[in-house]
Design goal:
Number of strands: 22
InterPro entries: Class-I_Pyr_Nuc-Dis_Oxidored, FAD/NAD-bd_sf, FAD/NAD-binding_dom, FAD/NAD-linked_Rdtase_dimer_sf, Lipoamide_DH, Pyr_nuc-diS_OxRdtase, Pyr_nucl-diS_OxRdtase_dimer, Pyr_OxRdtase_I_AS
Radius of gyration: 24 Å
Structural class: alpha/beta
Pfam family, one: Pyr_redox_dim
GO cellular component, one term: cytoplasm
Shape: globular
Keywords: Cytoplasm, Disulfide bond, FAD, Flavoprotein, NAD, Nucleotide-binding, Oxidoreductase, Redox-active center
Family: Belongs to the class-I pyridine nucleotide-disulfide oxidoreductase family.
Number of domains: 3
CATH topology of the largest domain: FAD/NAD(P)-binding domain
Helix content: 25-40%
């Protein structure tokens, strides 16, 4: 029976990074993963993020943006085309090629770092002295390995609406089905206006779908700063034509052969809309399926998350858990950093991860990104703050790109000027947010950003101007 210092269950962005870091630190390391490729005939490392989440969705967003640009923006640049044709199936093919390249890259990294990779469903059997015994079920063929330390990184699954409808990924889709449509649906319904709902709705709207988004919450993007959320809502609805309904109560979902009808209510008024396809995007739940957690006493909370302390330690000795399967934001980069931190803690190091400086990004157009506290959170907590805002409307680089929409907001402490939060909507803010994250990690003030020279003409000048505005000394607004 093979014995390892560290075994990671799950090869998503948390698990594979944890395994690589553990191996770099000198531990004999293995990773168990049950992921399969799109065809279902071969293993595929990388978890949801790489195979049916972050990476493929960004590939499709880019393809759909090119189509939209050719159809609507080229003329402003003096470029005319006789006709624009696109092939949705070809876009899916390109997306799949990117996924295959990156999953193959993880396999190479495992080989390079001497991480032993096992394909199958990993589960706990029990203890053998100081070692945890783990079963690997490879489509019915079972084997057992042992580990001194186990890192659970099994990720999350799409939340279902099983009381109303089952997902078949033909008519009723989850995130995986939404990423594999080869024909543009004339009418597309989306339940949920979170990251997945907005991004997938944006993709298919650009390609020609009539998109309706049904959101149960009365507030749009409640987790985001509401100044930014309201600006986003205006862009998405009035300019892009997404039909976003808030405060929706869904009563029934009836699937026919080629369509699906949703019966719902908004402010007491009842509707019954029929769609060619329906995406269910109501969030995700922790994936502990098949872990055999109960038999070894691995503790979970009332929502199904594995219970951990601030170090990602579970209630079991030398068993750790990271990523979507534990508390905190369900973000790939959060999982990766937790994976690195746990590997280093096993090695006796003392890394630190601050949840308040983890950035959030939504890859719509315009993009949305933030880090730290929102203005609403600061008000609720009674924290006195200063606010500086600046827009992209007068930014030379944004105007040249034809993307002069959006705002950056800097929030800092009224007494110390320490940055408490930065919120953005605009072009490439997924990249601009990194400066704000670094600033907050180093406990910078808004004055620190204001006194740093930012290249001209760049989009980053808008962050510089917002930092100046926090001290009431904006130069261009």
């Amino acid at each position: 029976m093979s014995q390892f210092d560290v075994v990671v269950i799950g090869a998503g962005p948390g698990g594979y990074v944890a395994a690589i870091r553990a191996a770099q630190l000198g531990f004999k390391t293995a990773c168990i993963d049950a992921g399969v490729n799109k065809a279902g005939d071969a293993p595929a490392l990388g978890g949801t993020c790489l195979n049916v989440g972050c990476i493929p969705s960004k590939a499709l967003l880019q393809s759909s943006e090119h189509v939209h640009t050719a159809l609507h923006d080229f003329a402003a640049h003096g470029i005319s085309v006789n006709a624009v044709h696109f092939d949705a199936a070809k876009m899916i093919e390109r997306k799949d090629a990117i996924v295959n390249k990156l999953t193959g890259g993880i396999k190479f990294l495992f080989q390079k770092n001497k991480v032993e990779s096992f394909f199958g469903l990993g589960s706990f059997l029990g203890k053998n002295g100081d070692f945890w015994q783990l079963e690997i079920n490879n489509r019915g063929e079972k084997s057992v390995i042992e580990a001194k330390h186990v890192i659970v990184a099994t990720g999350s699954l799409p939340r279902q609406l099983t009381a109303l409808v089952d997902i078949d990924n033909e008519i009723v889709l989850d995130n995986e089905g939404a990423l594999n449509l080869t024909n543009v649906p004339a009418k597309l319904g989306v339940i949920g206006s979170g990251v997945i709902g907005l991004e997938m709705g944006s993709v298919w709207k650009r390609l020609g779908s009539e998109v309706t988004i049904l959101e149960a919450a009365p507030t749009f993007m409640a987790a985001a700063d509401q100044q930014i959320a309201k600006e986003a809502f205006k862009y998405f609805t009035k300019e892009q034509g997404l039909d976003i309904k808030l405060g929706v109560k869904i009563h029934a979902i009836n699937r026919a052969k080629n369509t699906v009808t949703v019966e719902y209510e908004v402010n007491g008024e009842k509707f019954a809309d029929t769609y060619d396809r329906l995406i269910i995007a109501i969030g995700r739940v922790p994936n502990t399926n098949g872990l055999n957690a109960e038999s070894v006493g691995l503790a979970k909370d009332e929502r199904g998350f594995i219970t951990v302390n601030e170090l990602c330690q579970t209630n079991l000795p030398n068993v750790w858990a990271i990523g979507d399967v534990v508390r905190g934001p369900m973000l790939a980069h959060k999982a990766s950093d937790e994976g690195v931190a746990v590997a280093e803690r096993i090695a006796g190091q003392k890394p630190h991860l601050d949840f308040n400086t983890i950035p959030w990004v939504i890859y719509t157009d315009p993009e949305i990104a933030w880090v730290g506290k929102t203005e609403e959170q600061l008000q609720a907590e009674g924290i006195e703050y200063k606010k500086g805002t600046s827009g992209f409307g007068a930014n030379g680089r944004a105007l040249g790109l034809g993307k002069a929409k959006g705002t950056i907001k800097v929030l800092s402490c009224a007494k110390t000027d320490r940055i408490l939060g930065v919120h953005m909507i605009g072009p490439m803010v997924s990249e601009l947010i990194a400066e704000a994250v670094v600033s907050m990690e180093f406990k910078a003030s808004s004055e620190d950003i204001a006194r740093i020279v930012h290249a001209h003409p760049t989009l980053s000048e808008v962050l510089h101007e917002a930092a100046l505005a926090a001290d009431k000394r904006a130069l261009h607004g």
